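Intended use. Records like the one below are meant for learning the mapping from a protein sequence to its folded structure. Do not use them to infer anything beyond what is encoded.
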Amino acid sequence: MEAKIIEGVDGGQHIVDGPLTTDLAREASPALLLNEVDQQIAKIRPMATPIDQISRHAASKHARSMVVDYFSVDTKPTSTTLRVAIDEDDLTVQGSEPPRIKIETNRDDIFDVSDTILVQGTEGYAPDGETVSSDELVLYVVQRDDTNGLWVEAVNGKTIDGTPGLLPSIARGTTLIRMGRAASELDVMSPLFEALPQKRQNYCQIFKMQVEQSTLQKLSNKSTPWTLSDQEEAAIYDLRLGMEKSYLFGVKGRVRDNSKKEDIYLTGGIWQQAGKQFAYSSLTSDSIVDLMREAFTGNAGSKRKVLIGGSALISALNKIDYTRVITASQSVTKWGLDFTELRSKFGTLYVLLSEVLDDCGMEDNGLIIDPEYITKYTHIPFSTQKLDLKASGQRNVDAIVLTEASCLVLRYPAAHMRIVKQ
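Structure written out for the chain above:
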């Protein structure tokens, strides 16, 4: 007798009059086998597709639309430069006890009343106002000008013509570093600070792969076992390679296929989403320190990040003689990937070769990502669908279609960095 599917008392599906087969299982409970695919996909050659692999273990969100709107936030700038040089013989001054001096910077808006400013490379003065101190000059912001400029008081300023607390001459372009706020004893309130996330957008891309095997091919004797499942595994690997390239270097866009009379959504890659870039001409132990500094400072990221690099970049990293400041330690396994640790006082990089970068002509380049701030949006979770091409009279084959509609986004762009060779 032919096996049949009957409905249970509570909506379940049951097989009677025959054995349970995969065909019946797919028909009666499609999710049963899809879950197995979801569990297994991350185990298919993960080293070849590190970004896709990490994204499947990172934060994931369901997208109800092919168009994904998300918000990312960065940190307030901590430094700027002096826009107008300061001449100690021609200061704009208010009052005398203590004097307030006007300065003009290229980013007055990053400072607020009660902020303190470190004038990098400019010597401050001892309390007598005449003896040069080993401390750099520090300013206190008293007022922001309505048009442009800041009114400041010098914490360790210079005495000029008997007037203490003035500023020495400071060259245009000198770096000004925003430091902590300083309140008085009776202050209850402070200037407001709000960080507003910026709205960004990406498109989910529908990734598909179809696998077919003819009935005669399935029935034929073979010198080695080769089934539809083997073909499916190879197809998943090829699909993931394509997804990896789109996740990295895709360009967000929408094209019109007039033959299908449909819009095709293309996802934007994370290469351009990264908020920082480090350029190098050659790699030495000193430049690695600079790279680490750039990767781990000036952002809200974690102290453990991932560096995927092309073969030339990885080769250059392997040729460096590391010191006690930068150490290359033993391998570590995370997210199903085998990394080499690169440690410094700034943080730790998990380093991995990405042949996808080589395929895309970027063997000298790399990308540092913070797994804590990468999110995968999925409109259609990875799934398989069996096509009954026999019943439709098209082909005498077993056919499976693999599908996923998804995209990657980087939150806190400054926590991620491109590495490019000059």
